[in-house]
From TrEMBL:
This is Alcohol dehydrogenase. One of its GO terms (molecular function) is oxidoreductase activity, acting on the CH-CH group of donors, NAD or NADP as acceptor. The keyword Oxidoreductase applies. Residues 21-337 form the Enoyl reductase (ER) domain. The keyword Cytoplasm does not apply. It comes from Lentzea aerocolonigenes (Lechevalieria aerocolonigenes). InterPro entries: ADH-like_C (IPR013149), ADH_N_2 (IPR041694), ER (IPR020843), GroES-like_sf (IPR011032), MDR_fam (IPR045010), NAD(P)-bd_dom_sf (IPR036291). Keywords: Oxidoreductase. SMART domains: PKS_ER.
Length: 340
């Protein structure tokens, strides 16, 4: 295969300053940095797509307490990306191989072949299918909430990266009714018309508990929560006997440093209903990744699943604004920035 020219310098995005309130363009530095020559056993990768997720804003805070490395001022951000090997000094990867790496806020990455995962071209229609928040959604729905045949499942933040997968996974696990909440009519239509949710409502239009009770008059068996705050309080009120809650995120608190991570818990109601509340963190263990990828691949082939995603075009320079817009609710599904 003809080798493609590798530029002497390429763009990367660094943390300019920690986020104190909400992320703005001032928190990022888009700079050109040298692309070094690969050493023995190393490869050069040209990234094509970068995945942008809500937690990246939290990783930009100085006091972030998360089970993953936070971003350091002056250093490039990390994030999952897919691309192609364009130069190889390793027998393990060859030029033209599709790979995934973790240092994706870069146009090019140079490192040991073992620091990249070789992608299986037969598994998914495109390499971009590897860039989802599937391991989290799958672990939460299957292992934590243990969704089963006939359940009524409520997913908050349902049109987002994690939520849009969680609702579809619940349906594949046999849920009778899957209800989603999101912040606009466009997203409600997307959930019901394109992702196969049975019902959805706009959490900004009227009390959440009333909307939920109307759609689930017999109560919800499972709640997959990425929002917290009033949504969590409403789900407690609308819970069926022995309901299972999988707490994945607290967007109403994370976005703009609000107090959504501290909802009130109606303890007596929770006791009477015997609600099991399980917060969880996904560590992306090989088992968790494989459980998701193998099912996602199968469900796509069976026509049961949509890859919910939005692509922002225009290169790495668009990634900072993509994160800002994601948190403002502009995008649906898993957010990818096209780098090439
Ligand atoms: N537990 C784990 O292991 C784990 C792993 C990965 C991610 N997470 C968490 O999962 C959550 C979702 O992450 P994601 O990357 O998929 O984000 P996302 O849902 O794709 O994107 C953010 C969404 O937040 C919503 N939003 C913004 N302000 C809100 C508010 N005040 N109340 C309710 N919703 C609001 C917006 O949707 P609307 O337009 O609908 O408002 C926006 O689209 C985050 O909390 C993240 O930290 C947890």
């Amino acid at each position: 295969m003809a080798t493609e020219a590798i530029p002497a310098k390429a763009r990367e995005v660094r943390l300019a300053a920690h986020v104190t309130d909400v992320v703005t363009k001032a928190n990022f530095d888009v700079v050109k940095a040298p692309v070094r020559e690969p050493g023995d056993g190393e490869v050069v990768v040209r990234y094509d797509y970068l995945q942008v997720t809500a937690v990246m804003q939290d990783l930009m805070r100085e006091d972030a307490d998360l089970p993953m490395p936070t971003y350091k001022v002056g250093e490039p951000l990390w994030g999952f990306a897919v691309g192609k090997v364009v130069k190889s000094n390793s027998p393990d990867l060859k030029v033209g191989d599709d790979v995934e790496g973790m240092n994706g806020w870069n146009e090019y990455a140079v490192g040991p072949a073992q620091s990249f995962w070789k992608l299986d071209p037969t598994m998914f229609p495109t390499p971009q299918h590897y860039l989802t928040q599937g391991p989290t959604a799958y672990h939460g729905i299957v292992d934590i909430a243990q969704v089963k045949e006939g359940d009524t499942v409520f997913v908050s933040g349902a049109a987002g990266g994690v939520g849009s997968l969680a609702g579809q996974i619940a349906k594949c696990m046999g849920a009778k009714t899957v209800i989603g909440s999101a912040g606009s009519q466009k997203k409600i239509d997307y959930l019901v018309n394109e992702l196969g949710f049975d019902a959805a409502f706009n959490y900004k239009k009227g009390p959440i508990v009333d909307q939920l009770r109307k759609l689930a008059p017999e109560g919800i068996d499972v709640f997959f929560d990425v929002v917290g705050g009033e949504t969590f309080e409403a789900a407690i009120q609308a819970a069926a006997q022995d309901a299972r809650f999988a707490l994945c995120g607290a967007l109403s608190g994370q976005v703009g440093n609000g107090d959504g991570a501290f909802p009130r818990l109606d303890i007596m109601h929770s006791i009477v209903r015997q609600i099991q509340i399980r917060p969880f963190a996904t560590y992306h263990t090989p088992d968790q990744i494989w459980a998701w990828q193998s099912h996602f691949s199968q469900w796509l082939k069976e026509g049961k699943f949509v890859f919910p995603h939005t692509v922002v075009e225009g290169g790495l320079g668009k990634a900072p604004q993509a994160l800002i817009d994601l948190l403002r609710g502009k995008h649906s599904g898993n957010l990818l920035v096209k780098l090439t």
